[in-house]
Write a structure and sequence with these properties.
Helix content is 8%, strand content 38%. It contains one helix and four strands, in the order E-H-E-E-E. By secondary structure, the protein is mainly β. The two termini are 23 Å apart. The chain has a single domain, classed as SpoA-like (Surface presentation of antigens (SPOA)). It has a four-stranded antiparallel β-sheet, with no helix packed on it.
Length: 78
Amino acid sequence: MEFENLMDIPLNCECNLGETYITIAKLLRLEAGSVIKLNTVVGGNATLVVSGTKLLTGEVGSDSKKFSFKVSDVILEK
């Protein structure tokens, strides 16, 4: 089977950068510009999910003013 036809198909990718717990009261007070502190720091671990499947693990980083994801392992969750 030839896979070249599949190479341009877009996939939904998500990267969970961290978690936190907040109260409902804090959630209702969030507005544009609010900051939510997460349990992950730059250099911490993250997972990349592609179309609902955990596919890669890596490290959270930053590139200028944007976050980045450096792949460290392929996990292919089934």
